[in-house]
Structures are given as structure tokens and as C-alpha cells.
Design brief:
By secondary structure, the chain is mainly α. Helices cover 75% and strands 3% of the residues. The protein has four helices and two strands. A two-stranded antiparallel ribbon has the order 1-2. It comes from Marinobacter nanhaiticus D15-8W. InterPro entries: DUF2231_TM, UCP029509.
Length: 142
């Protein structure tokens, strides 16, 4: 008599993908806090900080998007979940790029649109990180 065992393993994110995905939150959150500081104090340096942090967030989000494209082609059973994750990362990158263009204006002219876009991008980055770390790495048979 032979016994068969079914092994389940976690299909966790690639460590590089995880670092890139997790790096988007502090960068976009820093931009949001810098926008809030500019709205409170009107010191132009805060708008410059926000611009640089958004640029860094776009680099990390773009590289995480590239990893998501690779994972999308490698996914076999949960393609719908990977597609939703990819679309969310794409929306984050597009909204972040629009936010960068808004922040390229004069510091006074970027308010309040830049602040609102920073809120939206930060919330979307948190949602993408939540989905990336919880749903995509859930255990199950592959």
C-alpha cells in the first residue's frame, strides 16, 4: 500500500518584488506628509521634498510593475488575482505620474490638487501592498 501526500507551499512574492512593493509606501507616504507640511507652513522646501519622494515612489512602483508583469505570465491558476494586482499597480503608477506632473508646477499652483493626488496614491499603494503580501502569497496547492 502506498500513501500519497499532497504538499502545499506558499507561493510567496520574489524577495526583490517584495522589497520594491514595500518601498512604495514610505516614499508615497513621505510625499503625502511633505504636502501636508507645505499646506501648513507654506515653506517651498516641503514641495521640493514631495517631488523627489514621488519620483522615488515612481521608480519603485515601476519596477514592482515590471515584476508583476513577469508574475502575471507565470501565474497559472490564479491569473485573475494577478491581473487585478497588475492593474492596481498600473493605476498607482499612472496616478503617481500625474501627481509628479502636478508637483512640477509652481509650489502655490500645485495645491490642493497635489495634496489630494498624494492621498489617493498613498491609499492605493497601501492597498496594492496589502494584496501583494496577503492574497498573492496565500497557501494552497499549485
Amino acid at each position: 500500500m502506498t500513501a500519497t501526500t499532497h504538499r502545499t507551499h506558499r507561493s510567496a512574492l520574489n524577495p526583490l518584488h517584495a522589497v520594491l512593493l514595500a518601498g512604495t509606501i514610505p516614499l508615497f507616504l513621505g510625499a503625502l506628509l511633505s504636502d501636508y507640511a507645505y499646506a501648513s507652513t507654506y515653506h517651498i522646501q516641503w514641495s521640493l521634498f514631495a517631488s523627489w519622494l514621488i519620483a522615488g515612489g515612481l521608480v519603485f512602483a515601476g519596477l514592482a510593475l515590471l515584476c508583476a508583469i513577469i508574475d502575471l505570465f507565470r501565474a497559472n491558476r490564479r491569473r485573475g488575482l494577478y491581473l487585478a494586482y497588475f492593474v492596481l499597480l498600473l493605476v498607482i503608477w499612472i496616478a503617481g505620474f500625474i501627481n509628479a506632473l502636478v508637483h512640477a508646477k509652481d509650489a502655490w499652483g500645485m495645491m490642493p490638487t497635489g495634496f489630494i493626488l498624494s492621498i489617493v496614491v498613498t491609499v492605493l499603494a497601501c492597498a496594492a501592498t496589502w494584496i501583494g503580501f496577503s492574497s498573492l502569497s496565500a497557501g494552497g496547492k499549485e
